Amino acid sequence: MASTQQTGKGPSRLTRSLKRRRLTVDDVTIVDNNVLKRAVGAAALGNAMEWFDFGVYGYLAATLGRVFFPSQSDSAQLLYSFGAFAVAFLVRPLGGMFFGPLGDRVGRQKVLATTMVMMALGTLAIGLIPSHDTIGIWAPILLLLARLVQGFSTGGEYGGAATFIAEYAPDRRRGFLGSWLEVGTLGGFALGAGLVNGLTWMLGDPTMHEWGWRIPFLIAGPLGLVGLYLRLKLEETPAFQRQMEEQSGEQDSTIQEQFRDIIARNMRPMLLCLGLVFMLNIADYMLLSYMPSYLTATLGYSETGGLLVVVAAMVCMMFITPFMGMLSDRIGRRPVWMASCVGFFFLSVPCFMLIGNGSLWGVFAGLLVLGVLLVCLLSIVASTLPALFPTAIRYGGMAIAYNVSTALFGGTAPLLSTWLVNKTGNHYMPAFYLMVAAVVGFIAILKTDESARQPLEGSPPAAASKAEARELVEEIHQQQRDEDARDAAATGA
């Protein structure tokens, strides 16, 4: 029988939430394997489609700068384009504040279907906007409006998708199953980058500038329909259904009161989530959104060459991610996260030196090392962050904290990195920014309890079979006996 990991500080979450009563096998949620596969697959595929929509903008930032801000210099065009990219992140907290508490009231599935539709419509709209040469100042204004719709919908997307998978997953496999959400994210980014790269190669820069850039955005329409179908086929999570049964379907508080309660009573997990997401999103958007434009505008690589190297690195990351998630189920989330922070602190500058050495192989090697370090974060974020919050406010708490941190630091990472490079002339400024993020992320994970192989806060244990449920119950009882013995020894002393 495998023992439960307890590498966090203080009593395990499992013991804290269950020690007041004696647990039986009937209290353990048995997750049907077919339902579990469908839930993980649909959430991951829907997430891939969302991030295909969102990522395409980053890959076409240089082209969009020329289309919507033609009167500016090349560097200013890129800066303005990333400014429009960052604007969407300003409304992400508003989306999180709206969709998060709503998902805790009406259900995760309904909200995830809604965000899918909004994201597809916002992306489709960008592909239909006339250029600056056609309608003048209205072109960038309409671009900003479409980006605001994208940002608002994304505010409810990731927190809901991560919550959905975490609440379906058995305790012993939550890291592995949650990692597939990030496989979807990387797949969406890679698909977007690959499509942009292929179109640029086939059509050439003049045609891409004229009309080819619209194609990836227009594809969002049919992709959105596929994602909506997948999400409408999902069932609500067992944890949410049990929560609703305990409340008898009644909601005594408004969304505004629920929001205030989340902030007032859960400040510690909110702050921890802010710190963890600070590290995650600076690394994430630096590598996946900013890097193609950095290679093109700052280092002078061709658009197709820069994108091709980034896509190759992302494909490698996709294959590694599930294995890192599986590793976290064995050794814990905290060691994996700490290893990433240490790696980013000491290797960011050497990797950027490799990227800037003039060789595509050097670029690939530097990106791959940074990508593996990022995978250490991506593979466990969907199992680490939901575990910070109890079931009743999990979607809302995570959506608010995640999106506030992302708005402040993630979406602004490409903009700030571009500005720092232009202001200082130092091509290593993005690496220094990554080092700062690594310090913050390391401090945050030090303060976070280990959640591997533990039930989610406020939820009963979850298992993949009756036999596993019996093992979990015995482990819980053993933990309770051990804790009682420690308490008795302390009292006697």
Distance between the termini: 33 Å
List low-pLDDT spans: 1-15
Count of extended strands: 2
**Residues in β-strands, percent:** under 5%
Described by the principal axes of the CA atoms, the overall outline is: globular
- How would you spell out the order of helices and strands? HEHHHHHHHHHHHHHHHHHHHHEH
SSE diagram, text form:
Blueprint: H1 13-18, E1 29-30, H2 33-59, H3 61-68, H4 74-90, H5 92-106, H6 108-128, H7 132-135, H8 138-154, H9 157-168, H10 174-212, H11 214-218, H12 220-232, H13 238-247, H14 255-265, H15 267-298, H16 303-331, H17 333-355, H18 360-384, H19 394-410, H20 412-424, H21 429-446, E2 462-463, H22 466-492
Parallel strand pairs: 1-2
Helix pairs in contact: 2-6, 2-9, 2-10, 2-12, 2-15, 3-4, 4-8, 4-19, 4-20, 5-6, 5-8, 5-19, 6-8, 6-9, 6-12, 9-10, 9-19, 10-16, 10-18, 15-16, 15-18, 15-19, 15-20, 15-21, 16-17, 16-18, 17-18, 17-21
Describe the structure.
The two termini are 33 Å apart. The protein has a two-stranded parallel sheet. The chain is 79% helix and 1% strand. The protein has helices at 13-18, 33-59, 61-68, 74-90, 92-106, 108-128, 132-135, 138-154, 157-168, 174-212, 214-218, 220-232, 238-247, 255-265, 267-298, 303-331, 333-355, 360-384, 394-410, 412-424, 429-446, 466-492, and strands spanning 29-30, 462-463. The longest helix is centred in the middle third of the chain and has 39 residues, at 174-212. It is an all-alpha fold and 493 residues long.
